Queue: 3 jobs
Job 1
Amino acid sequence: MSDTFASDSAESLGILETLVRPAVSRAGEREAESTSAPMVTVNGLGVAYGSKTALEGVSMLIPERRITAFIGPSGCGKSTALRCFNRMNDGISGFRISGGTVLLDGQDVYARGVNVTALRRAVGMVFQQPNPFPMSIYDNIALAVREHERGISRSTLDGIVEQALRQANLWDEVRDCLTQSALSLSGGQQQRLCIARALAVRPTVLMLDEPCASLDPISTGRIEELLLELSADYTIVIVTHNLAQAQRISDKVGFFLMGRLVEFGDALQVFEASARPETAEYVRGAFG
Amino acid sequence: MSVQEKLRSKPQWGSGFGQFACWVAAAVVSAVCLSIIGYLVFQGWHSLSWKFFTTDPSESMREGAGGGVRVPIVGTALLIVLAVLVMFPIAVGAATYLSEYMDESSWFTRVVRTGLEVLASVPSVVFGMFGLALFSMPIFTFLSSSGAEGASQAFGRSFLVAAIVMGVHVLPFVIKVSEESIRAVPVSYRRGAHALGITKWRSIRKVVLPAAAPGIVTAVILGMGLIAGDTAIVWLLLGGTTTMGASNWWAPSQFLQVLRGTGATLTTYIFFNSPAGDGNSPQLAYAAALVLVVLVLALNVIASIVGRRRKRQGS
């Protein structure tokens, strides 16, 4: 862990530059491009766990190849909404959709006969606590690839593993120790490994549920940099408690409060000219 | 009381005494253990020799003529291997089902869990009786041999029969420890696998079970210790003898005959040569007891080494 921290510190000056780059310039860069088509369309989504309502009347269009951030206080439904996109809520007892639809590229993900494992390939997920498998770095990435492509050749697999690690900006750090246990990596490296693992199965959407919550600022900065790079090719949805992070990297922001989506719009507008008073209060830190 | 007064006040009466009482209890346990091992060593050490390990037992009633433990050692090893083969797939399958698939609120769950508790409390001699009654039925002749009464009953006593009953006897224990190991695998591993589009069964096969493997192996090794030490089932179901039923038992061509035949283990040898048995060589019984204790101790040490490796992997 200490080795990585030393090398992280050397690059920290460059990363800090990213951290302090004002939100205006980021959002401004994107505005010039044409608005992208929605990858995920949510229409009046309602979710309940048993008798308890978790989400009600949530509607939004998540644009393709942009970063969308869900913000809001704890327990307001951000993570529940995220888990609806890849149906990870299915395993939770008492879960049911009480209304509305979730469309991925026009397809209803809750339609009868949907191949849930294929859905989860297309919509990858990275969790708050890094959760690499207790295996080698190589096997962590190769496992899911082998499951989806039986009989894949070793050389093809090597290529996929390398590409995934390069995409996650982890290749240079681990290229010589791929057979080492993934648990020996630092927290930030483990989280990047989890991102690489998700990218290896070639998703269209990448979802991250507070991915930097357990990481130090340097590791956080590296992951934010990584997400900015990845957003050129992937639709990214990130749940975050860190308002500054949302301002730094997101194009669109959704503010959740008590199971409802209070406001959804361009990051600049939500943070600096909120349409709703609750949003304005939250982003200035009055509660949450 | 001021803070200073509190700091200077005497501790409650009895806390020192409580500690002493616990120490005495631990000392009693240690003393009992060491006495048993010490007595075994004292009584049995001089009977241990190369001849002891390489000759077969004899059923002579002459004092001290009990013979060596070659057959009993082979018998114990054979029984352990066969019983583990019988028990292992069932134990892992049941433990996986209980941990990963079972719905804790259903009536079926309650039946299974109660059943396991009942099975765990059945004494081994009762298992032996049941095994004898069951495997004496004519359809089970293939597991032992035809009885003395002709084809109307199977003999019902053989390594195969003893292994099956022994495997069932240790099932509840191995299932319990295996289930705990599987449950101990962090939920985050399962979630991570599901989120990658890996099905539930494949996640269990490729992530959960490998992670739980050290714990499951520990459970099996401890089960092997239980198998090695059981007497009632073996005495009833291995023919109550100290020799191998099959002639030329060491020949590979005779292997099936050996499995279907009677035999001896360390425990039956000890029983036979003890004052309670038909033999008359208590010194040899002590020597065999020492060998058995060392064997079970070795199994427990291996189990704890494997268990410690699991802890290191998990961090």
Job 2
Amino acid sequence: MNWFLKGVRKGVRTEKTPSDVAPWSTELQFKGIEEESGVTSESLRCPTSAIGPGWIAERCVYCRRCYPHYQPTGNHRMGVVKRVEKRFQRSFYLYPIDVGTCGACNTELRLIASPQHDLTRFGIFFTNTPRHADALIVMGIMTKGMREAFRRAYEAMPEPKLVIALGACAISGGIFQTEKIEADVVIPGCPPSPYTILDALIRAKGGRGW
Amino acid sequence: MVALIVALLMLGLSPVAALINRRSGYIACSAGSAVFVYYGMTNYSNELSLFYVAAGLVWLFTSVYSLYYDHHRWLGPLYTSSILGMAIALTTNNLLVFLAGYEIMTIPAYVTIGLYKKTDYSAFVFMGFGELSTILILAGFLYSYVVTGSLSFSPLTTITPFMIAAFGFMVKMGILPFMVTEWLPIAHGNAPSNVSAILSASMTLVAVYGLTKMALLTPRPDLFGFILLGVGGFSVFFGAFYAYVSDHAKVLLGFSTVENNGAILTSIGVYLTAPTHTLASFSLITTAVYVLAHSLAKTGLFLDTGMMENEYLILPRILKNRLSDVGGVLLASSMSGLLPTVGGVATWALLESLFMEAYTLHSALSIIPIVTGSIIAMGEGFATSTMLKFIIFAHIFNKRSSNEKTRPLILLLLGLLILAGGSATYIFYRPFLASNPALGLPFGLIASEFSSQPFGAISPLYVLILPSLIGALVIAVFGKPRIRRSEVWNSGAPLNEAYTSFAYSNNIRLMLGKLLLTHIGRDGVKVVDVFWSLTHTVAKLFISFSRHFSRTYMNSRLSWYVIYMILALIVFTVVVVA
Amino acid sequence: MIDQMVEALIQVLGTILVAPLYSGIAEKLKGVVSLRRAQSVLQPYYDLFKLLKKETVVPSSASELFVYGPYFTFGVYVLISFVIPVVYPRPVFLTPTVDFLGGALLFSLVSFVKVLSAMDSKSNYVALGVSRAASFGFLAEATLITVFFAVAISTGTNNPYVESAYASNPSHYLALDHLLATVSFFMLWLFETGKLPVESQGLSEMGMIDDSLTYEHSGKPLALLKWGGYIKAYLLGSVWLNVFLLPWGGQVGVLGAFFDIGLMFAKWMILIAIVLVAETSLAKLRLFKIQDHLAIAFVLSVFSLLFSVI
């Protein structure tokens, strides 16, 4: 009863607009201290070759070695949606699969279910079986042991279905420089912030983003 | 009457025929059984005629099945003579002929168990309890003779003969403390599946028949009826409970027979104690319908085990076959007491009659039917889980397939019979038919009544038709699914190990550990059947006494069994003639 | 006859179409209490609509039972909605098909077919859930039967509509047997619909009891299973409201039937409020403790039976 009363008293704490975006989880931009052509991955010793020409979101692990040449813009809407599935507009079930992460992506993904972000208001939910899932969220580098499991999970999902690659490791191999995973939706970041994740998910199902 | 003579003649000939040629014996037995069913249907006088139909159907299906099953030289003659004994016991009106039939039915079964035995004591236990049953029944019959001065079944003025004989019949039915008589001979005795079917389905049917017949002739006892009612209720619970934790297919089914016999005994108890005449006749019909439901379904499930390569559900090795899968599911649903099958109607009627009795009594005595009803309700819950376990681990969770047609077809036919039979129960419940044309049921209601006013009503026919009809409508509205085949999702790993039947019931082993005396040792979880361990101790004492005897005479040499059979036959013939 | 058919149609459609809404409202409120904006109250409809359009993945060794079992169970649920007083307070077309106990047996039939259909996938997850459900089935099935009889015995008939009218009399309503049965049935309802403290829907405090039964299904069969789940919760909940907790207010006639749908909505808001408090304040019971929860419900219903005759 105590929990119930507390919950009623506190009211709804979900954000109406993105308000608390951490700067270093957003898009980076060249700030013009030197000539842009002079600043390359080699000169900055970028571990993932994410510079040049320009900033390559898919590879960046936000190590800040390029600072102050590159600085965050505050734009968190970095996700790239290659295929929009309108049928998931109001009901979108996600099955996360960890094929080899450090754990950061998992934690950030988990955060979109918090009262602050609340994925359910957009009709997005987590599920615990691929049979009920509309999208497979894959995190981490493709390790040998998980390759087969990942294939089976994809196979187990009913059509129509999306694959969402979350975080630099899944998209480009990250600092390990392993293979990239083919995905319909790409969410860069290391790890991506809940805002970035939610925005991409909403756009993937035909929304205008967050 | 001609039909009866023909049936008995054919059944009488079948052991002889089986001695010469096994198949011809089974064919004669099938034909005789078919005529027996015909006799029961055409001469339908009271509820006892329904026993003929049920028994005849069991024999018919089992005999036809045996044509494709039996591999042992002596099985045919033994099996057919056992059936002959049952036919004699069912059709006679003479006490001694009944007993003779009862023995002719028991002894071949005993020999079969002796021939197939895995353990020394199984045939012995079966015989011991069989003879205990016979002695009690004999005592009851003798008392009846003393009271009435007649050797035929005749109305009694005292309940004592019924009480004595009832204990005898209850031993045979495997009622509570004697549960061992049901499962042990079948399992440890390793009885062949066709013999298991008649052991479990129709031998107990004969015992129920005797009990019902005696009950019809006896003045209405007060206390004893309630005892039967309560003991039956506890048998339902413990039977279903032990069945649920068994992993041996035949032990499971044997305990399920205990459960069903308990329900039948309860129904007889309601008949004996019913405060109104209407309720009494309702519960009598219920008894007969329950017998029909149990006999058919149990026969089918035992015949099903005949197609298993391994009798342990932990190693599910039934040959997969679509026909037998469907048949098995239908039989199991009846065994679980689900509408619209015969078993569903019987379960419904039994529970209704118990609670109607509680309502009509409306006194402190109501506690007995209420508590019994609640215990039976729990037992029915266990029965559903048990039957699911059987079907899942015998049929669904296995990979090997079989192309066999005939035996699965028999199983399917039995399943369909039991499904359609639910709607045929209208015939038996003739005095209790009702209708409600204003609400769309111009016919086809069975109303449970304790006085002129109905208590409740069901319509098995409508339950048979409507869900499928609505289901078809749903398909029409939403369309058929677009199907893609894929492997089972097993967290990304290939599906190698399947969940076992042991794990399926292990929660209960642990949760109800006090009742099962669950013991967790180094070699896993073990449970104890309290009733059996008690009986076993007594039996061991008995065995040590009679070791010498058993070494000399019961040494599983066939000649001795045959001699014993012939002697028993002669003794009874002499007694009957005299 | 025509009137009865129209009333039946309103009752059945009122069940099938409105049932998901109550789940949506409950989930929405639960979300709000846990500080979230939460999903739309129409979310269950969105989910069903999407699933009906999706492909159905069938495990390679599964048979037709896996695919068409859900259609059958849905059919049985629809049949039950003809039978028990879930909207309209008088018997409607086809109501006498089964009585109260027959209704309980139909619920057992549904769970039997549902389990077989799910197990046909041969999934170990499903087997795990089935084994858990089977462990409590004996108490749940028994309580459903005894609680239905508790009212049958006090009225002398197993007709649920008569029982509803009987309980609306205050002296019968306040009798000890009725109150015990009311509590007992509510505890059973929590178990049957997978509410806390027994089980929780969603991803935290999962009981993996009934949830796992739909683990392998997808597409249309999954939609029907989910929908069936909503209908089951609605049927049992409405029986509890109409026969046990609030047996008052039902109007008769065709127009009355429309009014009854609104009345049911009001009654359901009360039930949802009770469940909301329970679900947001209680923690899940350990698996083996669920047995105690059900045993208490069972014993209460047996006491209710005893009190009603003695």
Job 3
Amino acid sequence: MNRARPAAELSRRIGGTRRWILLSALLGTVTVGSGIALVAMSTHLVTMSEIYGTAATLSLVILAVRASAVTRVVARYVDRYLGHLGTFRVLTRLRVWTYSSLVDAEPLGDADHRRGDVVAALVDDVETMQDHLLRVAVPVVVTALTSLIGAVVIALIDPAASLVFLGVFTVVAVVSWSTLRRAAATAGRAMTAVRAERLARSTEELAVLDEMIAWGRADRLTAVLSELDDRERPATRRLAAVRARADAVVTLTTGGTALVLAAMVLRPPFTVDVATWVLAVPVLALAATEAIGPLLAGAERSASTDAAAGRVLDLVERHRPPPRPPSRPLATRSPRLVLDHVSFAFDGGPIILEHDTTVVEWGHTVVVVAPSGTGKSTLGELLLGLRSPTGGAVRIDDIDVRAIDHEDRPTLMAAVLQDDHLFDTTLRDNLLVADADADDECLRRFVTVAGLDALVDERSLDLPVGPDGASLSGGERQRVLLARAMVADAPILVLDEAGEHLDPERRRQVLDAVLDSRRGRTTIVLAHDTSVIARADRVLELRDGRLHEHPRHEHRADAGPTTQS
Amino acid sequence: MTNRRAPVAPVTPVDPVTAGREQLALAAAVGAQLVAVAWTAVLALTLSRAFDGRSITVPLALLALGLALRAGLRTISNQLAASVSETVRRRTRAELADDLVRERSSSGADATLLGPGIDALDDHVCRYRPARVTAMVVPPVVVVVMAVLDPISMAILLFTGPMLIALLALVGARTRVLAERRLHELGRLRHLHFDMVSGLPVLRIFGRAGDGAARLGEASERFGRTTMDVLRTAFQTSLVIEWAATAATALVAVQVGLRLTAGHLGFGAALVVLLLTPEFFVPLRNLAAEYHAGQTGEATLTALAARAAGRTEALTAPDRSPASPTSSAPEWSSPPSLSFDAVTVDAPGSGRRLLTDTTLRLHAGETIGLIGPSGIGKSTVARLVLALHRPTAGTVRIDGEPLDALDPEQWRRSVTFVTQRPCLVSGTIADNIALSAPTATRAEIEHAARCAGVDEFAAALPLGLDTAVGERGARLSGGQRQRIAIARAMLRNAPVVVLDEFTAHLDPDTEATVVAQMATFLAGRTTLLIAHRPASASLATRLVTVDDGRFIEVGP
């Protein structure tokens, strides 16, 4: 992949940016072009007046002056308006594209700051890409076109001056653009990285602020910020220096070009036919070099946009999902679940799971008991197809779980994960995530099964749950997660420590109610103790990366589903 | 959003050195623009000399010099402004961090303010403020020059100039409101992204990832529209200013041309007037161009000003800070008693009433178990003890003294605790344990790790306790995280202990070991234990629950 110009690479990948750049550049050229025309015609007008002294011959010129004035203003407005409008469309597409590339990735890391980093890329780095289109790409085209227009107009007056103009201007523009760009590159990258990290880490620190205050460690936030300020300082200083240099180059280039041309063309005596135009040449040069300002500012910005684009591309690259078997539809709605020689290890880590084969028959309730830290949650994620095993496969009937047709997926499996998430919206909307078509009556039924009826009667389904359910108590949150998993009404349900944060009696009540309502379908309960095994058709124990039949339940292993209705 | 006082002064009272630098930066910016005006006038005169057939070597040299002067001034101005901006941003950030700690904020929007919000001050300081001052000083100077050369052209400028300034002021108020809304929406956009990224596995399981992407798309579009609202106002302002500038230039050109023809005006003066007219508008155009940047910064300043007001209140309001820090450094040689004295407590956030005028006493060195169904306010009681939440009525007393009378920071140093959903921060396992006692020795940390059963799983990790938390190699399970939190609590040698479901996520074997260790640790400490499981509840000498808003004992 070409990563020399990440911003350009990223725009190419999401596509459709080129026409906006071209449109905006053309309008920008018209703006600067009519500016050139305006000063040229004005100077010409005044000179004509001095030489000929009659108003009659001037009317055409006056008309031209006015026309170029109107064109300039209108073109500028339309340019800025459409340019930004197009850019925001592109940014939205870019966000959706980036998010969608993460959808099939393996689970993101647990640490908050990983998520913070992803969010920084999705929101802020994408926002920075706005500059790539409007302030980096467009000025390059505008500068090229307007300097050509300027050169053509000057050539009509004095061909030699035109060549000098083009030569001087092109050399200065190209050389200073690439030097400034290079000078800013490292600092721009550093600054973008620090700013993203600041967002991620302050999000993280603010999320734990309460606990830090309780520990008397609120100074952490200040310390993090001050450390990042220290790290950002050299980069921002360097960028400020580059910006100041760019600004000086702009002043010297526009003024200098005008002076060089003045020295060249203002050699009296003038013949009368050129005199009315000659005086316009230096002024014209001033107008024609106007675009170099945005161009060099863009050179400095390109460092940040490239860095931001690089981060987005890295994010997508890092989370590229492993290859999956081709998608297939499911033959039955009552499948068996097969763990077929599944093994798993984190990248470079020790092997967590190395199993031969276990078959979960349709309609069984299977409890997997495992002490904490033995890979129970990983097993759950493998069963759900959220993770890819290092070896072997989890199969639903004969199909690899990761190859289940997208049509079938949502209606096939539901789960309560150990690190499950509630969205910052109402209770109803959270439940509807599991089944968008469920009506209130259906939601209430499962709310009752999960033992949340008292809360809902008191506060209704419109109760906002807060960020990740923060407005609920630990037990209430857990019940909402259970209710949501049941709303999906899926043939296969995986519960990972779903009774946590409930006292034993209530846990038994809730899980009993859940398992009752699951009669005749497959439920896999992952638990760290044996409190729920009374309800199980089969109990397995996860030990040393393998599933063993639990000694107290071995005799029932092949008894078949006892709860089939 | 509510606080919309007229132009917001810089929130941060800058020190004299920084203020002086800013003055210099502004002076240099104005100077550079004045040089530009003079330069243009000289250029016009040079053209006229050339037209008259006279030598222009000297004026050209003068112009080259002027160019260098202007570039120099601009460089000085830019560099100084950048250093001012750096100081301002750094200080503002530190102050905001203090405010956030005081408010105990945990909102994602505040992270936005802390990051991009304050970053926006850079453009405000480096571009908007110089543009504003230049726009106030330079156009009047041009008017004066024009008055000398050609009063009629001056009249045209005088007619358009003030109108544009009035327009800018008028539009300014509206733009600021929009910019504030935009900042607010940026915070919401980030929060939504955080929500959708955190919930990605959920969306995948239920096959709703497409909906997640769609919601982000909608939010992004909405944010784009809000930004467009801000920009449209800026563009329209620019449009009017450009229109006035261009129209005035055209008008002056035509009018000067006609009067030249009639012989009412000298050629030199005519050229100067012609070229100076755009210079009158240049500072106004620049200001309009920087307006967007400026208003973004102003939105940040407004948000900060609201907090600064809160800061003053906090300093003056008696009930927020310790009323009379009578016991400045309470050191307990023996564990204190703890009582909830006729307390009424509302839930944070929802405001649901949890406790009504009820009393509970923990004797010195006693462990009380608080049990009961979810949602009765057990965790809120724990927050009362940590001085993170205040009762609506009644008093929490430590050895008979009101908790309000103690400095909360000093009081919290006497408490160690495990929360319901303990937080891990980035850093190693050892860092996370030592959070409760930064001065702890390695041996102490290792001891705490052993007591909480952290060493059991840490031993299997390549770097042991020095393994970074949350990185790929060390994905920690819920139970492992819980054990780190327990080790953290056990590391701090404090007389008061608050445990909120401290054995959550632990398997029975681990739980048994940890509970035994905890029993030893709790000896000689006053403990509030929130328990769900029999094993941990067994640590309590008395069990209490909440019924209808009142504490009641339910047995030993």
